[in-house]
Each structure stands twice: as structure tokens, then as C-alpha cells.
Amino acid sequence: MPTPPLSAASLPSEDLPARLLVKVCGMREAASLNAVADLEPDFLGFIFSPASPRYVGDVLTPDLVHGLPDRVQRVGVFVNESTAQVQAIAFRFGLDFVQLHGQETPAQCAELRATGLRVIKAFGVGEAFDFDALGPYVPHCDYFLFDAQGPAPGGNGRVFDWRVLEKYPWPVPYLLAGGLRPEHAAVVRNLRLPGLAGIDLNSGLEIAPGVKDPARVAAFFDGMGRTKAA
Ligand SMILES: O=C(O)c1ccccc1N[C@@H]1O[C@H](COP(=O)(O)O)[C@@H](O)[C@H]1O
Q: Can you give the residue ranges of the N-(5'phosphoribosyl) anthranilate isomerase (PRAI) domain (predicted)?
């Protein structure tokens, strides 16, 4: 089992975000969706990419998403989908955010934002990641999301070396993703990185693709010292 790539103590001292946001992604069937929603994550994510083993298909119905508590932000995950199709799905499921994991352009981010959706643009991070290349996206995104590189556009279960993010230069806050598991929680709890707003949990907390283990999600929340919002 891979270990965390580094210890929080080895990271530079930056201001800690007041409370790290938590997104739990790849939800689809009612039982684990409702059990995880009861733990009060900030975001719940749904994969609308047909190639993914977590594709919502017919399992996730719009009423399940509409029935979630108002405090949870609903995120649809897309890979190289047209603006019209993203917009149609977002309307049907009542999405608040779209998370874009393909080669979506800054112009498409701007188009989607103009429809009232909030935009999370995901990037796969390698050793020599070029943060300058993100400049054109900065005015059009609410969050960036940094994930490991892998064969699939996302959900690879791989952890990258978070130290790359020490050089993050932009004002757009970001979510840290990629293979996070309960054993990372204690490190994440004290993580100090510029621009870090939250984390994204996915394949590391599953019983099977698209079926989260609420006990593992709860163990992660406990490990990072997260309590329910007052
Ligand atoms: O989870 C998927 O199958 C997926 C498919 C296509 C695009 C994104 C996907 N998931 C996102 O990938 C990251 C990292 O996931 P993991 O922790 O490595 O499993 C996360 O942001 C998911 O939202």
C-alpha cells in the first residue's frame, strides 16, 4: 500500500485554510450517497463520463441529487463534453459546480460560468508541472484541482508528490486529489501549501467503483479532525 508522499512537517509554513473543504466524489447509488451525505462533506461529486467505472449511468437519478441537504454543493465531473451537454445535465441534476477533467479550454470554462455554473478545472500534475500554463484559466475558474497523472483522466488512485504545489503562484484556490486514503488523513490535517482550499476523496474510500464505504469516509474525517459544521 503506498504511503503518503511526504510528511506535513517537511512542507513550508503558509497560512492554513481555516477549515479544509472536503469533496467526496464518484457517488451514485442511494445507500452510500445518503450515508456519506450524513457525514456532511462540503461537496459531493458525480461522474458523468461514460468511460469511467464510476459513471452514474441510470443508477443515479436526479431526485437523489435534488434530495441532498442544501449545505452540500453538487459537482458533476465531465471529460471533454460539449458545453450544451454539460449544461443540460447540470440543469437536470441541479448541479452547482462542474469539474472538467479533459482538454477543456479557458473559453469553455468561461462559457459554462456564464450559464451560472461554478467551474473546477482539473490538471494532472507531474514532476515538471508548468504553472504558467494555467494563466489563461485563472479568470474563468472558481477552483483548480490537482490530481496525479495516469492512464485515465481521473480516478487512477495515484498519489503525486505534493511538494510540486509549494510553487503554486495563482490566486485561484485549489483542491488536492489523487489516491487519498484514510492513512493520509493525519498528514492532510496539517498540510500547509499556498492556495490549498480542500481535498477530494474518491477511489481510496470505496468498496467497489462508485460505492463508497461510509466507514472509511468517516475514518478519514476523524483522522483529519473534522467535525460537523456548527
Ligand atoms: O473517478 C473517476 O472514475 C474519474 C473519471 C474521470 C474523471 C475524473 C474522475 N475522478 C476524479 O479523479 C480524481 C482523483 O481520484 P482518485 O482519488 O485518484 O480515485 C478526483 O478528483 C475524482 O473526482
A: 22-222
